[in-house]
Amino acid sequence: MYKEDISGRVAFISGASAGIGEATAKSLASNGVNLILAARRIDKLENLKNSLEKKYKVKVKIIKIDFSKSEDIVNALNSLEDEWKNIDILINNAGLALNKDIYSNNLLEDALQMIRVNCEGLITATRILLPFILKSEHGHIINIASTAADEAYSGGAIYCATKSFVEMFGDALRIELIDKPVKVTNIKPGLVNTEFSTVRFKGDKGKADNVYKGLEPLLAEDIADNIEYVLTRKSHVQISSMTIMAENQATATMAYRNQ
């Protein structure tokens, strides 16, 4: 199977300290891609940086960014050294869900935080980094959306809305960049067993584990593997959207559970 050589390119990954972001960093590093990793937990990024540089001999820059704060994003990215501005790949991965309850029971602050991170943070980072990507001969923007982008469900009014936003933003961006050497891909994972659910239920591990009970969910590495696939297609091939679900999952809300 054809696999384009992406070694030597530079990728920016948001939310890189755990889950899909961390797995993607490892996958790209194994392909010789130099990395800019951003997240709030700088200690985790430091450990990841040391591991990747030692194992794969790539260059890794880490940045502490809270993607719920646009000013933080702007200041951090505008301070990038010239050697790190030759960005080819942007992985918009930072995102979260908070609680799963009908909207009338939601805390307003939880709703606003999801909008800040999933929407405002994504478009802010993209706007600052896009001029750098436009200078690349093989630019690629990958947005991590969700099956929730295509199917609303009870308890997910704000989360579903934010992921639909991510998908529509990516689709419009692809249209606007039609005459540029920049591809745009929306990745829509289904049930992926990461700390995502633990965060959603604010540390309640029991509730988090129940999300995946009775089936074999996807792992962060499965999503990273498909991101690698998207990035290594022939130069004239653009995968605009990819939905990835577990074997026993049919829709965002429908799955067969052996229990």
Automatic annotation (TrEMBL):
PANTHER family in alphabetical order: ALCOHOL DEHYDROGENASE
Organism: Brachyspira catarrhinii
Gene3D superfamilies per record: NAD(P)-binding Rossmann-like Domain
Lineage: Bacteria, Pseudomonadati, Spirochaetota, Spirochaetia, Brachyspirales
Protein name as catalogued: SDR family NAD(P)-dependent oxidoreductase
Keyword entries, A-Z: Oxidoreductase
Domain of life assignment: Bacteria
Family per record: Belongs to the short-chain dehydrogenases/reductases (SDR) family.
PROSITE patterns tied to this protein: ADH_SHORT
